[in-house]
Amino acid sequence: MSSPDSPPPADSLPVSTAEDLRHVVDAVMAGFAQVPDDAWDRAAYRLDWDCRDTAAHLMDDFAFYALNLASRVEHLDSYAPFVEPPPWRPGHPPQNFWPDPDLGTAGIVRGIDATGGLLVAVTAPRRTGTSASTRGATGTRPASPRWASSRPPPMRGMR
User: Fold this and answer.
1) Which domain holds residue 26?
2) Are 52 and 40 in contact (CB under 8 A)?
3) Which residues pair with 50 in a beta bridge?
4) Domain count of the chain?
5) How open is the CA angle 92-98-101, to the nearest 5 degrees?
6) Is residue 136 domain-resident?
7) Among 139, 158, 119, 125, which residue's Cα sits nearest to residue 24?
8) CA end-to-end span of the chain, whole Å?
């Protein structure tokens, strides 16, 4: 028996759909579209990063979650094994997806749309025979190939 403070079992929690994710990405895009071009270099609330770094971090998260879901190998305790690039600017966190500063707010909104759209596409239901996806119509992952039997390195924390 669980205590009143224990979380519900994972299989009883609601599952987010691709449509739910699209609503989230659209809401982020709408909010970010309101930010003036010159505001992205301001410090982000309670962070050592600026607002552009934070937007780039979100792009990285969207893209890496999509990469993990699209992979034949389950990456449950780490991201797909890419080398982390050096920071785009000295003193800033490294990001794999960095919005072009010359494009201002429009570039950030387009980057969120692209990386968030990638996550939406990976989570969307598929019909059998219409996609080159490794997932079937039910969204289940096929058995891992023999070459994928090694465990990925432990996750070094969220970026």
Assistant:
1) 15-125
2) yes
3) 43
4) 1
5) 90
6) no
7) 119
8) 36
Q: What are residue 43's DSSP bridge partners? A: 50
- Angular region, 3: left φ>0, alpha ψ -120 to 50, beta rest: beta
Q: Is residue 130 in a domain?
A: no
- Would you state the structure tokens that stand for residue 97, as one six-digit string? 């997806």
Over residues 31-83, the pLDDT tens digits come to: 999 999 999 999 988 888 899 999 999 999 999 999 988 888 777 777 777 88
Rounded to two decimals, the pTM is 0.70
Among candidates 155, 123, 141, which has minimal Cα distance to 25?
A: 123
Tell me if 57 sits within 8 A of 128, measured CB to CB.
no
Answer whether residue 147 is part of any domain.
no
SS3 at position 43? strand
For residue 141, pLDDT over 60 is answered with no
